[in-house]
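Table S4 entry, GH3 auxin-responsive promoter.
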Amino acid sequence: MPLLGKIIKKAIDVGGQIAETNDSPSQLQQTMLRELLERAKDTAFGKAYAFEELLRSETLVEDFRSRVPTFDYKRMKEAWWHKTIEGLPDISWPGTPEYFALSSGTTGNKSKRIPVTQEMIEAIRETGLKQVLSLSEHDLPDSFFEKQILMLGSSTDLKEVDGHYEGEISGISASNIPFWFRGYYKPGEEIAGIDDWDERVEAIAKKAPEWDIGAISGIPSWIELMLKKVIEWNKVESIHDLWPNLAVYNSGGVAFEPYRASFDSLTSKPMLYLDTYLASEGFLAYQARPSQNMAMQLSLNTGIYFEFIPFEQKYFDEYGSPFPEAPALSLNEVELEKDYAILISTVSGAWRYSIGDTVKFTDLERAEIKITGRTKHFLNVVGSQLSVAKMNEAIQELEERFGAEIPEFTVGAVQREGEFYHLWFLGLGTAKDLNAQEVSEALDELLKTKNKNYRVARSKALKGVDVRLITAEDFHRWNAEKKQKGGQVKTPRMMNEESLKEFEHFLEA
């Protein structure tokens, strides 16, 4: 084995041991909350909610959540962040942020501007290092630790606006990689700075034979397209024909399972698939150990304090935002296998802030989670209460039953002659002679077995399921049409009726 690879791996092993702590997840989080309050006590937000007084409380956690209401982006911006965006200092975090992360999530709405402080950049780096250290838990050869890492995110060519820089969080993170990592980082600063996604991928395809990639990181849909382009450009059968040492793929942003079959078709060697949870608001979790279900460990002591609202309809408005006084639980109060909406308080000045994701805990002792969906992506027309997690499970079983690849899909409720139907668009990754009616019936039956509320709804007000078979490329063209291609962009798993009609017209054009 290469000597350098052994040295690096040994350093990672030692680093992993040093990183261990005897504190429980709950203790780490209580310490994190106290640190956040201490650092923000003299900000406008800290004074408004009397953080200095809170810090003297013997029941800090309880008093914090009773005194500070919950926020979403709209409430946080209208009450506080509009001043931060205007350049005023010390609003919800000391100083003024150098960066703002642009995010429209999966809604396609006007971009949000989320503060990204220097402390948050350091926290993202620290969590990223923890993930690197966790590689010692996996059975990887020494030589792997000498290979290059391809990170395909947003452009690092950030836009300067009124004294700060704006871009998507992956571009901000890539533009701030530590100096010691630059020798391993691909595609490199020049290609990463290309704003047009198609041009950037073409540049990667041209350079690919010169690189020795061991790991890839990025959102599955766009990594898949990139791999296909690289394979096609270089006229090879598999990505391993070009990068024989490719061993690890770090997924993130969306559930990976719907893409697994597509990824397997592009590789010819076994791959280690790991999950990460990098949101515009911070690096929330990472896969710290081998796990069949790709569960992720919350990043407990790197600038984020977590709370969890039971995901019940009575606690959320029609847009998926929690009501200001919605009850929240601390880490030591949650239960296994129940859906919760995440609240975070961070070193970027977000406070009890709903990022719109839902998770379930798979291991309480290790504080491990899986993302189950979005608070606003919970199809509840006529009481079906169908979550994205159950949709992903059903789609995966459809793939197995019909031998098809279905990496992309979206669904919504439509009315026809006064009756409600679920309209599905399934994006096939490979050409397949499928019967839409057979697929529709199979999907309907699968969902009935997975969700009792859906089963009840189908026996009453939900009259049927209509499946349209299209290609995954149709979704990519749609994103390009909406000028949302690459980077942090995710296909919306649910659309309202108006968006579905717009999508239908696009497909018919």
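The chain is about 35% helix and 20% strand.
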